[in-house]
Design a protein that fits this description.
It is a single chain. This protein has a single domain, classed as Transcriptional Co-activator pc4, Chain A. Helix content is 26%, strand content 41%. β3 and β4 form a beta hairpin.
Length: 135
């Protein structure tokens, strides 16, 4: 099993009219055995990581157009060097910008490992069923 990891700093956008942005370390993970999904983890001030799992197709589409209808959305920013990530939860929402170049680099690595459209050949349904059956 091959795992691709990438770390980059995101900018947490202010929820008010203030101009202050907060840098947040993000850790992106892609596992060959979970070829449809990307996990992004955000470092908190308390030293914990908060993870979100989303479809790799969402990232592919989000490079060129706003995409996502659920709790995680991606879109190009007005600055062509940035992407916007938006997270919606019952307790609130947050918006981040990340550098497009680093994100595209990570995505290219995932596509070299598992090309788009070939995910099913890498997905182990039997393993998933065994995990679900185990509890």
């Amino acid at each position: 099993m091959t795992t691709i990891r990438h770390e980059q700093t995101a900018a947490l956008l202010p929820s008010t009219d203030s101009d202050a942005v907060t840098p947040v370390t993000t850790r992106w993970t892609y596992e060959e055995t979970e070829p449809f999904a990307i996990t992004i983890a955000f470092a908190t001030e308390r030293g914990r990581w908060v993870e979100w799992v989303f479809a790799r197709d969402l990232l592919i589409d989000g490079l060129t157009e706003p995409t996502g209808e659920g709790d995680f959305r991606i879109s190009p920013d007005v600055d062509p060097d940035l992407l916007v990530l938006e997270i919606f939860a019952p307790s609130g929402s947050a918006a981040f910008t990340v550098e497009r170049e680093g994100t595209e680099y990570f995505l290219r690595q995932t596509l070299e490992l598992v090309p788009a459209g070939a995910e099913s050949a890498h997905f182990d349904v039997d393993r998933l069923l065994a995990e679900l059956s185990a509890g």
